[in-house]
Amino acid sequence: MSTGLNIDVKQFGKVAVLCGGHSAEREVSLRSGNAVLKALLSAGVDAHAFDPSEHAITQLIELGFARVLIMLHGRGGEDGSMQGALQVLNLPYTGSGVLGSALAMDKIKTKQIWQTLGLPTANYQIAEKSSFEAGSCRVIMHELGDTVMVKPAQEGSSIGMTKVTNATQLETAIQDAFKYDNTVLLERFIHGPEYTVSILNGKALPSIRMSTPHTFYDYNAKYHSNTTEYFCPSGLSIEDENKLGALALEAFTAVDGSGWGRVDFMRDQSGQFYLLEANTVPGMTEKSLVPMAAKQAGMSFEQLVLAILQTADGD
Question: Which positions bind Mg(2+) 1 (predicted)?
Answer without folding.
Answer: 264, 277
